[in-house]
Design a protein that fits this description.
There is one protein chain. It contains 13 helices and 22 strands. It has about 475 residues and is of the alpha/beta class. The strands form 6 sheets. An 8-stranded parallel barrel has the order 2-3-6-11-12-13-14-15, surrounded by 4 helices. A 6-stranded antiparallel β-sheet has the order 1-16-17-18-22-20, covered by helices on one side. A two-stranded antiparallel sheet has the order 4-5. Strand 16 and strand 17 form a beta hairpin. The longest helix is centred in the N-terminal third of the chain and has 35 residues.
Length: about 475
């Protein structure tokens, strides 16, 4: 290379370096300015304690113990799991792995015999006390297995210090015999006096239309609609010591309840169940209106699935507008009665599930993992990492630090000596960087997902620059 050419080359390199530095500094200035101009939203205001399911036992194995971030639930089924009576055994083989991953509870499908016998998913209940004991509705076992296998599964889960929640369908029944119905003047399939267990016999007097009225809040699919105002129904569902609720809790050893289709009856029903039976409870109130969810949860004295959060995540992540995550959700309104989820056996609309799991496992509420996402569809190691982050770092109240179409950054403010975290979600196709204000002074932090290799140190004013990968997330906390 000639000297003149070398001088030109050197000058060009210096100019490139100058403009490159200037460009980076300009980007950093824009980042700081944008972050400082964003009005931080302090979403929740409480003492910071984690979500509680009432679990007070200590681990029998040392594999799972109470953690700073609260619990994680596994929905341990999906629609039309394999028939053949082996599902309880399948789940039994997985609870140790789930417990080791930090999952604290499992939600099982309706466990009792339903109209379609061995082919039913359980949402058309006939005999609440037939767990695969009786030759009824064409089979002895349910779709999921025998009573012995169910009891073995519950025992195994308890050995791993996991709670087990029963799916309870008390809006409607199916599989009754025809009888003359004096309230309708017709024949109806409302005679359940011949159920094989001999427990909870029902007649037309226990279903709408009857002496208590023509209907309640809602019927489902043309099935006989249980009348919860009827004394026989109340007695057998939650009052009697050998009734459904207390039998499930004290004999079958379920720890809580997922109540199906609670739109179909008054919230007082769940309130009475909880007051008389106890245990954790969550209602399926399929409604995106936060006021409706919150009112029901308060009136029922129960948790509720956060459908408001579900639909906002769908719009935000799939609609490329993360600013929608600023909107109201049940976990923001009442974090101790909100059960969050990304998918369940009835609905699967969110396409970008990994970002959605990063959201619910770093935010408040009681997050739920869907069986097929964990076991089949998503990266289990990434989910396990997020579960660990939830259990160990997702503590305290929540503040939203920044949000626009592509970026969302929130801070969990810590509790009881736990420093909390900062979660950065990026829905764009390129790496993003942003200055944000933490709660930490002169502290080295790191990304606990491993997606970023940065180890920045917060400034004396608690500000620090963090980064996030394209279509991904990073979760930052003190490096300790």
């Amino acid at each position: 290379m000639k000297k003149s050419n070398f001088k030109i080359y050197l000058l060009s390199a210096l100019l490139i370096g100058f403009y490159s530095c200037s460009s980076n500094e300009d980007a950093a200035t824009v980042s700081v300015t944008a972050a400082s101009q964003f009005k931080v939203i302090d979403v929740t205001h409480h003492d910071g304690h984690p979500f509680s399911t009432g679990k007070t036992t200590t681990s029998l194995t040392g594999k799972y113990v109470a953690n700073p971030g609260g619990g994680v639930m596994m929905q341990a089924f999906y629609w039309d799991v394999p028939s053949g009576g082996n599902w309880w055994n399948t789940i039994n083989t997985k609870v140790t792995e789930w417990s080791n991953a930090g999952i604290s509870s499992i939600w099982l499908p309706p466990a009792s015999k339903a109209q379609n016998g061995a082919f039913s998913m359980g949402y058309d209940p006939t005999d609440y006390f037939d767990f695969g004991d009786y030759n009824q509705n064409g089979s002895i076992e349910t779709r999921f297995g025998s009573r012995t296998e169910l009891e073995s599964l519950i025992t195994k889960a308890h050995t791993e210090n996991m709670q087990v929640y029963a799916d309870i369908v008390i809006n409607h029944n199916s599989g009754g015999q025809l009888e003359n119905n004096p309230f309708t003047g017709t024949q109806t399939y409302t005679n359940f006096t011949g159920v094989a267990s001999g427990k909870f016999p029902r007649t037309s007097a226990d279903f709408y239309k009857n002496s208590f009225g023509n209907n309640d809040e809602g019927a489902f699919g043309g099935f006989p609609d249980l009348c919860h105002a009827a004394p026989n129904v109340q007695n057998w569902l939650w009052l009697r010591t050998d009734g459904v609720g207390k039998y499930y809790k004290n004999t079958m050893h379920f720890d809580g309840w997922r109540f199906d289709y609670v739109k179909g009856f008054g919230s007082w029903v769940i309130n009475s169940w909880n007051a008389n039976v106890g245990g954790f409870s969550v209602g399926e109130l399929w409604d995106s209106n936060v006021n409706t969810l919150n009112d029901w949860a308060n009136n029922a004295n129960s948790s509720v699935f956060d459908f408001a959060c579900y639909y906002k995540m769908n719009d935000a992540f799939d609609g490329n507008n993360l600013a929608l995550l600023n909107d109201d959700m049940m976990w923001k309104r009442n974090p101790y009665k909100a059960v969050t989820f990304v998918i369940n056996h009835d609905t699967d609309e969110i396409w970008n599930k990994q970002l959605a799991y990063a959201y619910i496992l770093t935010h408040e509420g009681y997050p739920t993992i869907f069986y097929r996402d964990y076991e089949e569809w998503l990266d289990k190691s990434k989910l396990n990492n997020l579960i660990w982050i939830h259990n160990n770092k997702a503590t305290g109240t929540t503040s939203i630090l920044y949000a626009d179409n592509d970026e969302y950054i929130a801070r969990r403010n810590g509790y009881n000596g736990n420093p909390g975290l900062v979660v950065y979600i990026n829905n764009s196709s390129t790496w993003q960087e942003r200055w944000i204000q933490t709660n930490w002074v002169n502290a080295q932090i790191k990304d606990f997902t491993g997606n970023s290799t940065w180890f920045p140190t917060t400034q004396a004013d608690k500000w620090v620059k963090i980064q996030c990968p394209p279509n991904g997330y990073s979760v930052w906390s003190i490096n300790m």
